[in-house]
Amino acid sequence: MAGSFASVVRLCAGITCARSYSGGRSMKVSAVFCFALFLFAYRPTQASGQCALPGPPSGGTIDSTFDGYVTQNGPGWTGADGTYSLPLPDGTNLWIWSDSYIGTVDPTTRLRSSDLFNAHNSLTILNQATVSWSTVGYPPKTTSYFAPANKSDWFWVGSGVVIEPTAGAYQIKLMLLEWTGLFKLVGHSVATLSWPSLSILSITPVTGLDTSLEWGTKILHSGSYYYIYGLKDPGTNTKTPYVARTSSLQNLTNAGKWQFWNATQHKWLAGESNATAMRGVAAVTPEYSVDPMSYNGGTFYLMAGIDPQHPAYPLWDAVTTWYSCSPQGPWTSKTRVYTAPEAGANGCKTGTLVTYNAKAHTEFTDADGILMSYNVNANDSSDLVCANDYMPRFIRVQIPGVIHALH
Question: Which of 182, 174, 171, 165 is nearest to 145 (CA)?
């Protein structure tokens, strides 16, 4: 409820409710005024009108099983950030990574031979049934799985989605963000992979976008639309989330056919310039997740990320969740679910560590809660020679009454 029922009852019960400033005379609330107050107290909000939202999440607890999966000594993948996951048709899971180390780590000291990473992106497959972890393309590939035509640029990854173009035949589409120089965004592309080979069928630039916003931190299918989440990053701690949508994944490479959420007008509009930040999230680190969750016979949406303002960089540590009744917000129920202990801790040699870009991996939701990850990195690159200073961490977060996601 937007107002207080008890307050309206007290105000409208016919009792004296206020004194005038002029002479202390009492006055009664008129029936019209009471009715207006009643409507204010009961005006439908998005949360009350569209869905029931669950109670706040519990504090996160370490998931040692998933921490174990990513504690890899090679040969192959031994650490990365990005940390996107995608369930595959055969029951395995594709993990999609940005800056990656591919090679070996000393299993005793957990030291690499060098702090220089090999690849700007990589793919791995987790098979929980056989407890196996494999690096796609390795051997022999130790460099970026996806590479732009311009050799001075690189791709960092975004979210992905599995499609079925024909019955029983699958493909994977992944968002790629192209960067150059000192972290200057050049553009967006969509990679299409065959399955199960994961060979690259195409990398197609997205038209109709400028570089003012970063798109692709999540692709979410809900109802009749695919929602593409993004971010405006002004280079400060005020990084704000945006969302667009399209009715068909055939339009994923043509943003001229996307609609962009304008929270000021409460409308979906054509043209990226009409996009505004979603309401209810003051700031979030550049990668975050949004997922539909089942609760009380209905659906709500869960956003997970790290609050970059409380505290500010380089001490980001607040793994945070928000709820909404619609994919575009407004977002409410902000909760710090975990404080990353690595943030600000000493690296293995000279510097300190930083944590960032938390996400939920709701396909792994079970009785222990919702799986979430966050990335750990070093502020001094020399610390990256230590594998434990550059790898994701995993936690489980329970939300009352929520036992599975909707996929």
Answer: 174
